[in-house]
Structure formats: structure tokens, C-alpha cells
Design goal:
Layout: H1 2-15, H2 21-34, H3 40-52, H4 57-108, H5 112-141, H6 148-151, H7 154-171, H8 177-198
Helix pairs in contact: 1-2, 1-4, 2-4, 2-5, 3-4, 7-8
Length: 201
């Protein structure tokens, strides 16, 4: 049953991922592709939509995937049920752990074992995020493997320029992330229409 599978899959992702939504990306990517739910290109689209909509990234991602899978199997009502199952699955482990931690944290916060566990989880979480960045970046910038024809393509040049400008605005100009998202979306839409009109895409 797709709904039970969605719940259990995202429960596993939520239970074994430390470091927030971005650290979940490698697991979501692995599970979605291995289960035949999504392609890498679709995952990237889901990431873009999840980042551009309100709410925590991991929850948005689970909701979108659940909606897509449920709708494919049982139509619009299946999409709603799939979204509920996937979302509950991904938040349930954190909810349970937070209840437990809130009860015992004051007692164990100075414990060396607890401090050691947290110290070990930090670099692991960063490693998971870096792995996701490399995997997604490879698909975005080099969808057809690294080749001169890809590097010199209009799509690659545009993506690279937009990435550089976005990074500059975020780090140097401290521009509001919402404004950056809106500008990037409008730029991408205009570039897509212009690219098709001129035959670049």
C-alpha cells in the first residue's frame, strides 16, 4: 500500500537524519529514486518548489512527494492522503525525540557522553549537506555529464551566472531571501521563454 510505504519511508528518513532538512536530502533522494517514485530532475524541481514555499524544507519536501505519489495512484484524494502520510512520517520521529529531550535535557546536558554525541553529529550533518549539494549541482549544471558542449551551452552559462549573482546578493548585499527567490523565478521564466524563442534551449 503506497500510503503505508510513504509513512514508513519518511518516518525512517526523519528518524535517522540529524542536522535539519538539508541533511535529509541524500536520504530523500536515495529513497525516492530507489522506490521509482521520482527522477533526479523531478527531485530538483521539488527542492526548488519546497524552498520557494513557506514552511520547513523537510516537511514541504515530504508533502510534495506524498502528494505526487498518492495522486498518481488514486487521483486527487489519494494525493491529499499521500501528503498527510508522508508529512506525518517525517515529523513524527522529531516530535517524539523532542518530547523526550525536553523532559531529560536539563538533567543530561552536562553529560560528557551526550556532549560527545552532539559533537560527532555536527560534522556528519555538514557532510550530508555537502553530499546533497554536490549531487544536485551535478544534475543542474552537468545533466549530460561533463563535456565541452555542456559547459559552453547557454543553459549552463545562464545557470552559472544566476548562481553567482544569487550568491553575491545573499552574502555581500544581505538581500532578503524572499526577494532573491522572486527575482530568480522571474529571471528563470523570462530566460526560458527567450531561450525557446531564440532556439537556445
Amino acid at each position: 500500500m503506497i500510503f503505508l510505504k510513504l509513512f514508513l519511508t519518511f518516518f525512517k528518513i526523519g528518524a535517522f537524519t540529524f542536522g535539519g532538512g538539508y541533511a535529509m536530502l541524500p536520504l530523500i533522494q536515495s529513497e525516492a529514486i530507489n522506490n521509482g517514485w521520482l527522477t533526479m530532475e523531478q527531485i530538483i524541481d521539488f527542492i526548488a518548489v519546497s524552498e520557494s514555499t513557506p514552511g520547513p524544507f523537510a516537511i514541504n519536501m515530504a508533502t510534495f512527494v506524498g502528494t505526487q505519489m498518492g495522486r498518481d495512484a488514486f487521483g486527487i484524494f489519494g494525493g491529499i492522503l499521500g501528503a498527510i502520510c508522508a508529512t506525518l512520517g517525517v515529523v513524527m520521529p522529531s516530535f517524539i525525540v523532542i518530547l523526550f529531550v525536553a523532559k531529560f535535557y536539563q538533567k543530561f546536558k552536562e553529560n560528557k557522553i551526550v556532549a560527545g554525541c552532539l559533537g560527532g553529529l555536527k560534522p556528519a550533518a555538514i557532510g550530508l549537506i555537502c553530499a546533497a549539494v554536490i549531487s544536485i549541482g551535478k544534475t543542474v549544471f552537468f545533466p549530460d555529464s561533463v563535456a565541452l558542449s555542456v559547459i559552453t551551452s547557454y543553459a549552463f552559462i545562464f545557470s552559472a551566472l544566476l548562481f553567482a549573482v544569487t550568491l553575491f546578493l545573499a552574502l555581500k548585499k544581505k538581500m532578503n531571501p524572499i526577494l532573491i527567490i522572486v527575482i530568480s523565478a522571474v529571471t528563470g521564466i523570462c530566460a526560458g521563454y527567450l531561450g525557446e524563442y531564440l532556439g537556445w534551449l
